[in-house]
Design a protein that fits this description.
Length: about 400
């Protein structure tokens, strides 16, 4: 994915916190997409559950009185078909068709399914008539699909934000932030040969800005854990933006340090202006070579448990938090892993939690718990760590989000 497309995703994420309503979000999304392809005509259609039809909610190059009267049934025409099937479509039109100057247009479904936000389609995006006169390509369609998926997630979150106007504002803000946070987490732990994975997030007071993520590509498992300073809707939105940015950078960069550098550069202005920071650990494990590459941007160091030697190592690269300074250079390290080795990632909510006597759970106690249960599978090991942690803190309230990710080499 190009740097321009990453910037588009970033600008869309910023739009959520800078606009008053969902109608303005439609316009911003369409403006960004129309500008990216330099097209004369574009539209966003959204499914109206009352009329059971697709209706245009934003358009470029179409007179308003025309698009306000458009209503397409599900399955009807190209737009209805794409919405019904949930698959993008690129059409090189027949030369006799005078509706489109270039005889080329593309339609992408606006659905949250790829990100597991919800499985019900929201609508579609139509693009036609590049100003250059050139036809659309398969690469154009792939990028439009990516942006449409992101737009769906933003619109879903905006719907939640709209509810703030008709409910108790503070309470619903917490609920929205928690919803955002939960949507960041993988719904299904990815399956990759030679790796056993388990993860959990326990939010503090129903809201937070922790997350972990898993992505597979080319027989490689990329995994990350992050903690955004702040425990409100703003922190949750920044977590959402950082996750989207991280995933986008993973598509164009191979080295973990270069990925993190790109995320820091893209998000720096927002983090600086909001006086917030992000701690992030990014790892890439290659099962065939049993090699781990990683970059640690100011995050509590994960523990690498060496099964054969029965000892732990702390995974550090001495790099700064995201948002400290633009253009920072980050570093990548690599380590060889062996069967039964365990990588334990966590946020500081776990180690800094206190018992009734004011003692912290701490890294040493975490390492001890890991050493005593390292022979278990990932899910059982995760459960025993959290059980030990809960027993330690007793009835003390959770003051900070607790996120734990266990990766065991098979």
């Amino acid at each position: 994915m190009s740097r321009d497309s990453i910037e588009i995703l970033h600008r869309l994420s910023r739009a959520i916190s800078q606009t008053a309503g969902i109608a303005e979000i439609y316009e911003i999304i369409l403006e960004e997409i129309a500008h990216a392809w330099q097209v004369e005509r574009a539209s966003i259609m959204r499914f109206d559950p009352e009329s059971k039809h697709l209706k245009i909610v934003a358009a470029r190059g179409i007179e308003r009185e025309i698009w306000e009267s458009v209503a397409i049934a599900v399955g009807e025409g190209v737009s209805g078909q794409v919405f019904s099937e949930g698959k993008p479509l690129l059409i090189q039109g027949k030369k006799g068709n005078t509706r489109y100057k270039t005889h080329s247009f593309m339609v992408a479904p606006v659905t949250c399914f790829p990100m597991q936000v919800g499985q019900t389609p929201i609508g579609i995006i139509n693009l036609t008539d590049k100003k250059s006169g050139e036809p659309f390509t398969e690469d154009d369609l792939k990028l439009l699909t990516t942006l449409a998926d992101q737009a769906a997630s933003y619109l879903h979150l905006c719907d939640l934000m709209e509810r703030l106007k008709v409910a108790e504002k503070v309470k619903l803000q917490l609920e929205v932030a928690r919803t955002i946070q939960q949507k960041l987490l993988p719904k299904n732990i990815l399956s990759i040969k030679g790796v056993d994975v388990a993860g959990a997030l326990i939010p503090a007071e129903r809201v937070g800005a922790d997350y972990y993520d898993l992505v597979t590509h080319d027989d490689t498992l990329s995994f990350s854990i992050a903690d955004v300073s702040g425990h409100d809707v703003g922190g949750a939105l920044l977590a959402f933006a950082s996750r989207s940015c991280l995933r986008s950078n993973l598509e164009q960069e191979k080295k973990t340090n270069r990925v993190v550098e790109g995320v820091n550069q893209t998000l720096f202005n927002d983090l600086f202006q909001s006086e917030q920071f992000i701690s992030l650990f990014l790892g890439q494990y290659h099962p065939k070579k049993k090699t781990l590459f990683y970059t640690n941007a100011g995050h509590p160091p994960p523990i690498l448990w060496r099964a054969k030697e029965k000892r732990g190592e702390w995974l550090l690269t001495d790099d700064s938090l995201l948002g400290i300074e633009p253009g920072l250079i980050y570093h990548q390290k690599k380590v060889k892993l062996e069967k039964e080795d365990v990588i334990l990632l966590y946020t500081d909510g776990l180690t800094e939690a206190q018992n009734p006597n004011g003692e912290r759970f701490g890294g040493n106690r975490l390492l001890e718990t890991l050493s005593q249960n390292a022979n278990e599978n990932a899910q059982t090991l995760l459960a025993k760590i959290l059980d030990h942690w809960r027993h330690f803190i007793g009835n003390q309230p959770v003051q900070d989000d607790v996120t734990v990710l266990v990766i065991k080499v098979g």
